[in-house]
């Protein structure tokens, strides 16, 4: 079924609206981050605040900086006294309540005379300043004759904008789009509409672009309904994909368990109960006859890698293949080294296959080996799945740190195999429940809560940056005792442009590297994003081995890197890092049995949020609590880090605020799938429209192809 014709107008190009030229169209493209902006994109670009132009105080009593509207008489024109310089053309107006000065820079005399003829009455609206004791407006937003007062005296929606697009233009484009918006069949449950007091879709989209009060913009029913629509669409889309997984037969994995026993015996430690439980859950899934799709959440250092390895045991015993995908080259290499160390002595063939291994020709030979079934376990980055790798018999895919992969990549991965493999997703970022739900719907999930035995608390302290010399002294002692140290350099605010911030990160890291080198000589290593992975690896290896005692790094070590002998983590400008990031970084130490410490160096004052983060870090090592606090402090979008979040962001809903709506949407979607999985009923058909509205075309196709 193609997109229903009733919503076709919403998918026409915004450029086709009368009066939108090339420039406006390209401004819209930049604003909405899309090459071809559709009407629906415009409609879903909601105002974030509101100016109430109905405000009209006496002129002598206007507060500074507010937007207001006045009916005034034009008294006189005062052209600039000099032609040169940047002096305004001024126009003096008044009404019974006082005097209003208008100022125009670079104004043509003819323009002023036409707009503001002396002796006439005009409606003027704009932001008022108090200037030398009188009210002044520089470049009013509106100058209209009294008959056109209706154009001005109302609440005006304020939109997020880009250069080249004014709010007035945006408002006009939105109102044109609203005019084109059709009435749509209702996909929400009538009882729910009544209970929430929501109107229909058309009514909501109209109201949201014509707010009457601040309330309407921030918490209005119209916005709420549209947010719910968006959440319901995403939950439904997830569940449709999920339902298809469920229907697909999966390889029934059953063996005597010999390989697993051997693997366990080869490990230098005993599994924790938590690891054992998760392995049990995985085994049950894989033996069920359906495809496994399970999310394993485990805090940093909880030992997920070993779980991944042991989960592969039965697959290997059955003569099938398993793959492990890592988000970065460094991590893929590290995993491969570990897997080779443990598995190769058991006769299991492990291959590292990333875009950076070997020459293209060698990689081709390696791929041929994979296709011929001469390899049991393939470890790689996602390039592994982008370059066309055919497996002989791929039965299990483990995706490590999976939130770094985009939603589409996850989908691609599932499409790859001929017989769909079982899938285990692993993430080290403890994700608040709301987020898990938004990202995965009701996917099965396992949690590794406990850390391997013998782990000690990481002693965490916060010190102002002035104490660096003391820290360096303490490091001398720690290193003399055989400890290893990470020194993480600042991350410039996430808001700034990525490239700019990376440059600054690197400059800071290089400087710290030099000062530490002057104390510790050639026992200090440096890695950052600009150093090529091939060159990074020997440095990391040197740190894991005997060459370096201190590793200065930007956040490249953030994910997954494992050096058990590292026991000290110094984080410079800790106040700039997000909580989850601090937690991830701290998780790099405290992995062995030795006591570990984390020193958070902050610039004084750390700021309110900075201080809260430092306090929480000192208070707890519980990743889940930290994730919740992070969400509270930063808002959802940032919890996973913008750059690494694989989550599609919502256009209307805001998870920090709409958590309850999300729960309701999930229950609603569950009910719908239960009642009408094929979306055939009246409501089901309307729901298809909803899915198209949010561009879940792919998922609708799943209904049939499943
Ligand atoms: P993560 O969950 O962050 O990926 P890793 O799998 O890297 O954690 O494990 C962290 C460290 O803990 C590794 O050095 C690993 O060898 C070790 N480890 C894993 N399981 C156990 C265990 N049961 N007992 C002791 N150490 C363990
Ligand atoms: Mg890991």
Structure, described:
With 706 residues, the protein is of the alpha/beta class. Among the domains are: 54-152, Nucleic acid-binding proteins (OB fold (Dihydrolipoamide Acetyltransferase, E2P)); 258-448, Rossmann fold; 458-620, P-loop containing nucleotide triphosphate hydrolases (Rossmann fold, 3-Layer(aba) Sandwich), CATH 3.40.50. Helix 4 runs antiparallel to helix 6 (201-209), helix 8 (221-247) packs across helix 17 (433-440) and helix 8 packs across helix 24. It is globular, with a radius of gyration of 31 Å. The two termini are 15 Å apart. The relative contact order is 0.10. The model is unreliable at 404-413, 492-501 and 636-648 (pLDDT under 50). The site of adenosine-5'-diphosphate has 19 residues, from helix 11. Residues 269-272, 275, 298, 300-306, 428, 452, 560, 562, 564, 591 line the site of adenosine-5'-diphosphate.
Q: What is the fold's blueprint, element by element?
A:
Elements: H1 22-32, H2 39-43, E1 49-52, E2 67-78, E3 89-95, E4 98-104, H3 109-115, E5 121-131, E6 134-138, E7 142-145, E8 155-158, H4 167-180, H5 190-196, H6 201-209, H7 214-219, H8 221-247, H9 258-266, H10 273-287, E9 293-298, H11 304-311, H12 313-317, E10 321-325, H13 329-343, E11 350-352, H14 360-372, E12 377-380, H15 383-386, E13 394-399, H16 407-416, E14 422-427, H17 433-440, E15 444-448, E16 458-464, H18 468-480, E17 484-488, H19 498-520, E18 524-527, H20 533-544, E19 550-553, E20 566-571, H21 579-586, E21 596-602, H22 608-619, H23 623-634, H24 659-676, H25 682-693, H26 697-705
Parallel strand pairs: 4-6, 9-14, 9-15, 10-12, 10-13, 11-12, 13-14, 16-21, 17-19, 17-20, 18-19, 20-21
Antiparallel strand pairs: 1-8, 2-3, 2-5, 3-4, 5-6, 5-7
Helix pairs in contact: 4-6, 6-8, 8-17, 8-24, 8-26, 10-11, 22-23
């Amino acid at each position: 079924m193609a997109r229903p014709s009733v919503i076709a107008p919403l998918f026409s190009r915004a450029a086709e609206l009368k009066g939108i030229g090339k420039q406006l169209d390209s401004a819209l493209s930049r604003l909405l981050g899309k090459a071809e902006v559709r009407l629906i994109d415009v409609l879903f670009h909601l105002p974030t605040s509101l100016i109430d132009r109905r405000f009209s105080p006496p002129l002598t009593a206007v507060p500074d900086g507010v937007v207001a509207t006045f009916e005034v008489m034009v008294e006189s024109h005062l052209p600039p006294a000099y032609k040169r310089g940047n002096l305004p053309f001024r126009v003096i107006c008044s009404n019974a309540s006082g005097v209003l000065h208008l100022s125009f820079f670079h104004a043509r005399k003819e323009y002023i005379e036409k707009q503001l003829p002396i002796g006439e009455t005009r409606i003027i609206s704009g932001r008022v300043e108090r200037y030398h004791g009188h009210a002044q407006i520089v470049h009013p937003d509106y100058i209209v004759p009294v008959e056109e007062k209706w154009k001005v005296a109302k609440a005006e929606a304020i939109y997020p904008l880009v250069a080249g697009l004014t709010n007035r233009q945006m408002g006009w484009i939105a109102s044109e789009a609203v005019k084109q918006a059709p009435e749509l069949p209702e996909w929400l449950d009538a009882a729910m509409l009544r209970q929430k007091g929501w109107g229909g879709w058309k009514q909501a989209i109209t109201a949201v672009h014509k707010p009457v009060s601040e309330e309407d913009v921030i918490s209005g029913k119209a916005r709420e309904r549209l947010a719910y629509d968006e959440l319901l669409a995403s939950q439904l889309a997830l569940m449709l994909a999920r339902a298809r997984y469920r229907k697909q037969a999966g390889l029934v994995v059953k063996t005597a368990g010999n390989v697993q026993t051997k693997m366990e015996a080869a490990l230098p430690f005993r599994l924790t109960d938590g690891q054992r439980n998760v392995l049990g859950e995985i085994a049950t899934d894989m033996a069920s006859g359906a495809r496994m799709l399970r999310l394993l959440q485990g805090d940093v250092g909880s030992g997920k890698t070993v779980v991944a390895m042991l989960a592969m045991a039965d697959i290997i015993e059955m003569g099938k293949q398993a793959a492990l995908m890592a988000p970065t080259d460094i991590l893929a290499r590290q995993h491969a080294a570990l897997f080779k160390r443990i598995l190769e002595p058991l006769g299991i063939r492990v291959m590292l296959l990333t875009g950076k291994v070997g020459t293209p020709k060698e990689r081709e030979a390696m791929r041929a080996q994979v296709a011929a079934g001469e390899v049991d376990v393939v470890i790689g980055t996602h390039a592994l799945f982008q370059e066309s790798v055919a497996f002989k018999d791929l039965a299990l895919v483990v995706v490590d740190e999976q939130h770094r992969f985009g939603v589409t990549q996850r989908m691609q991965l599932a499409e790859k195999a001929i017989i769909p493999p079982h899938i285990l997703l692993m993430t080290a970022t403890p994700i608040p429940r709301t987020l898990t739900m938004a990202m995965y719907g009701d996917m099965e999930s396992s949690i590794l809560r406990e850390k391997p035995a013998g782990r000690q608390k990481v002693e965490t302290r916060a010190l102002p940056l002035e104490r660096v010399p003391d820290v360096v002294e303490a490091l001398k002692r720690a290193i003399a005792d055989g400890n290893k140290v990470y020194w993480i350099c600042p991350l410039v605010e996430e808001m700034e442009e990525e490239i700019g911030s990376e440059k600054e990160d690197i400059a800071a890291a290089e400087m710290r590297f030099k000062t530490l080198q002057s104390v510790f000589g050639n026992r200090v290593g440096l890695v950052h994003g600009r150093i090529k992975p091939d060159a990074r690896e020997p440095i990391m290896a040197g740190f894991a081995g005997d060459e370096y005692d201190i590793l200065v790094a930007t956040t490249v070590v953030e994910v997954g890197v494992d050096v058990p002998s590292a026991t000290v983590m110094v984080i410079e400008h800790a106040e700039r890092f997000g909580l989850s990031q601090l937690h991830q970084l701290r998780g790099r130490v405290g992995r062995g049995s030795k006591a570990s410490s984390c020193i958070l160096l902050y610039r004084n004052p750390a700021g309110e949020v900075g201080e809260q983060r430092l306090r929480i870090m000192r208070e707890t090592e519980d990743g889940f609590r930290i994730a919740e606090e992070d969400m509270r402090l930063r808002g959802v979008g940032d919890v996973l880090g913008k750059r690494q979040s694989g989550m599609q962001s919502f256009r209307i809903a805001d998870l920090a605020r709409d958590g309850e709506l999300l729960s309701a949407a999930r229950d609603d979607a569950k009910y719908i799938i239960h009642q009408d999985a094929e979306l055939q009923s009246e409501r089901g058909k309307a729901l298809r429209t909803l899915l198209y509205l949010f561009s879940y075309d792919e998922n609708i196709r799943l209904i049939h192809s499943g």
